[in-house]
Amino acid sequence: MAYVKWTFLAVLAALVISFLHYTLPQHEVVRINRVFESQVTVGDNAIFWQGPAAGEGEQGNARFVNFLETFTPEGKAVVFRNEDTGWGWPPYFKFDTSNLQAEAGDLTSTKDNPEWVVITHYGWRNEYLSIYPNAISARPVDGPDVTIIPWFNIVFLFGFGVFVLWIWTLVARFKEDRIEPLLDEAGEMIDSVEDRTSSLWRRLFGRR
User: Fold this and answer.
1) Alpha carbon distance 164, 194 (integer Å)
2) Within a 10 A sphere around the Cβ of 143, how many other Cβ atoms?
3) pTM for the full model?
4) 38, 120, 147, 159: which is deepest, by most CB within 10 A?
5) Do 12 and 112 fall into the same domain?
6) CA distance 116 to 208
7) pLDDT value for 21
8) Same domain flag for 204 and 176
9) Is residue 96 within 8 Å of 114, Cβ to Cβ?
């Protein structure tokens, strides 16, 4: 039983951590090589794409999406999509896709004369699922070695930890005050039934 309990908790923790890692904002220092628009066909990976932009109607599975082609200081290619989140999830309330595309285009630079930019984004990049992180904002920085402190994530995770601890305390207190007394009563009842059964057995078969 203990294995089942800890396996369930481990799976639950993995799901929560994955959800938070996908949803919370992340920061990447990159050089923007180019910005472009490409038609994509959303299929089984639709959960990792946003719906139509704010003000647009349904467009089916095929639509045009803005992308940012970037490179890290180490030369690794990182491609971001640039989609509105609107009023949906995650709650970034992003409605300025076109503005961000224009700002990113203004920040493009070459490998020989790089201009470093911090892209704030959420989501994952996975080539097999054809999914891309969604860029939220872009701002220039002095160089590739700039230190980015994720203050929002620190505050959010601290508050989330306090909330989880509070829930854990409530559950433990409920278990101690309500569940354990019921289990004790059930155990006492079972012992009483066993004693009565043993006594009846001895009387019926003459064992005293």
Assistant:
1) 42
2) 9
3) 0.79
4) 120
5) yes
6) 92
7) 95
8) yes
9) no
